[in-house]
Amino acid sequence: MANTVKSVRWTDDLKLAIGESEVADPAAGEVQIAVASAGICGSDLHFYRNEFTPRPGVTPGHELSGTVTAVGAGVSHVREGDLVGVEPLLSCGTCSFCLTGNYHVCTERGLVGETAAGGMSELATVPGHTAYRAPEGADAEAIALAEPLACSVHGFGKIGLRARETVLIIGAGSIGLTALIAAKASGTTALITARHPHQQEAARRLGADEVIGDDEAGRERLQELARMRVVDVAVETVGGRGDTLLTAQLAIRPKGRLLLLGVFTVPTVGINPLLLAKHEVEIIGAMTYSATNGRADYQIAMEMVTDNADAARSLVTQRFPLDAVHDAFGAALDKSSQSIKVHINPHG
Question: Does the structure show a pLDDT above 80 at 335?
Answer without folding.
Answer: no
